[in-house]
């Protein structure tokens, strides 16, 4: 199914085309499965596409399973029948979400070109495949198949870890919540946090919001007599962290201005003492968006997603954008190609 400029919806029933082979405008991909989380993700995705001038690709998948009664198989459902039914449901969901007040309020949202991709297979892999040619992937925090007590579903976790573009995770609790026009970005001087800051500035510009770059520190707990060693004071550590954060912010804002005809959103750097994940989750409660790098300075280089990013995705109330540095995307792509080759 494909959709024209008037916002009507069309369908791609093939679903097996390599996303890397498609050309066209910027693309936002969103996964839907009828869960509250996926509906919230669809709302976010439509508005994100409108602000980017991007096309929207709505991905829904299904698995073929035999129907069993009393231990006896009654046969497999027809692929065409299941696909047609799912297509109708997804098209109805898209039409309903287009009328959501949060969507209607965004200029251009009604005109977003929309394409449905209905395919057989695991949703996590289909979404990762689609991310290869996307500018943004949007997923709900957990879908229909996730354990109700789980803070993050397996599909969302797989996408955050393996997607080949930035990923926004949307919690259903975020729907309808009034937010301050602030984009919060966690930075620690790492490559991933610098990439996250660039992404945060770009998102803030689209949202007409302020960028707040947040750095944190924790005082070391020395297992020695502190009178025998030289230990910096809290104020000294805070000053050092603040200086580093302001320098990174100044450099990144200058890069943004150079790429956007001298324009950049308002931005400031703040420093707080405490565990980074706790502070970011708390401060992001009323923000438009929280942006984090996939992993920071203190985490193993082999990790695709570090503990801070994972904690933010699991516990933040609002949308969380996870950005991988280019080096991580190369590792992800190499691993996927090796797996495909057997």
Instruction: Indicate the CATH class of the largest domain.
Output: Alpha Beta
- Oligomerization status of the protein chains: single chain
How many structural domains? 2
**CATH architecture type of the largest domain:** 3-Layer(aba) Sandwich
What is the alpha-carbon Rg in Å?
22 Å
Q: Examine the coordinates and then state which fold CATH places here, giving the name of the CATH topology of the largest domain.
A: Rossmann fold
| Percent range for β-strand residues | 15-25%
Compute the number of helices: 10
| Record field, number of beta strands | 13
Series of H and E elements: EEHEEEHHEHEHEEHEHEHEHEH
Q: How far is it from the N-terminal to the C-terminal residue, by CA?
A: 33 Å
Mean pLDDT: 82
Question: Can you tell me the CATH superfamily of the largest domain?
Answer: HUPs
Q: State the share of residues found in helices, binned by percent.
A: 25-40%
Low-confidence stretches: 1-22
The general outline is globular
Most strands sheet = 11 strands, mixed
Question: Which sequence of strands runs across the widest sheet?
Answer: 1-6-3-2-7-8-13-12-9-10-11
Structural class: alpha/beta
SSE map:
Blueprint: E1 9-12, E2 27-31, H1 36-52, E3 55-62, E4 68-69, E5 72-73, H2 79-98, H3 101-104, E6 114-120, H4 123-131, E7 136-140, H5 154-162, E8 167-170, E9 180-186, H6 191-207, E10 210-217, H7 234-259, E11 267-273, H8 276-283, E12 287-293, H9 307-315, E13 320-323, H10 326-340
Parallel strand pairs: 1-6, 2-3, 2-7, 3-6, 7-8, 9-10, 9-12, 10-11, 12-13
Antiparallel strand pairs: 4-5, 8-13
């Amino acid at each position: 199914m494909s959709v024209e400029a008037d916002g009507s919806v069309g369908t791609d029933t093939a679903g097996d085309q390599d996303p890397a082979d498609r050309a066209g405008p910027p693309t936002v991909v969103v996964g839907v499965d009828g869960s509250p989380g996926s509906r919230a993700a669809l709302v976010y995705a439509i508005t994100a596409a409108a602000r980017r001038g991007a096309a929207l690709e709505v991905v829904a998948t299904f698995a073929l399973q035999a129907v069993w009664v009393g231990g006896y198989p009654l046969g497999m459902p027809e692929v065409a029948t299941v696909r047609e039914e799912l297509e109708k449901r997804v098209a109805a969901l898209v039409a309903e979400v287009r009328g959501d007040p949060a969507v209607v309020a965004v200029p251009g949202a009604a005109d977003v070109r929309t394409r449905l991709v209905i395919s057989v297979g695991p949703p996590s892999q289909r979404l990762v495949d689609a991310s290869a040619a996307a500018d943004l992937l949007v997923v709900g925090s957990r879908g229909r198949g996730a354990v109700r007590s789980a803070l993050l579903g397996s599909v969302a976790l797989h996408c955050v870890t393996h997607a080949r573009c930035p990923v926004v995770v949307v919690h259903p609790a975020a729907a309808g919540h009034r937010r301050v026009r602030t984009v919060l970005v966690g930075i620690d001087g790492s490559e991933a946090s610098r990439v996250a800051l660039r992404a945060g500035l770009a998102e803030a510009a689209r949202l007409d919001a302020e960028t707040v770059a947040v750095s944190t520190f924790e005082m070391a707990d020395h297992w020695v007599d502190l009178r025998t060693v030289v230990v910096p004071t809290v104020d000294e550590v805070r000053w050092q962290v603040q200086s580093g954060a302001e320098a990174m912010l100044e450099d990144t804002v200058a890069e943004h201005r150079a790429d956007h005809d001298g324009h950049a959103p308002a931005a400031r750097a703040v420093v707080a003492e405490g565990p980074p994940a706790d502070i970011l989750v708390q401060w992001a409660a009323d923000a438009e968006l929280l942006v984090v790098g996939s992993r920071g300075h203190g985490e193993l280089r082999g990790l695709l997603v570090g503990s801070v990013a994972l904690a933010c995705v699991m516990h933040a109330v609002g949308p969380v954008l996870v950005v991988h540095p280019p080096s991580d995307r190369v590792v992800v792509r190499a691993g996927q190609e090796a797996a495909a080759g057997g």
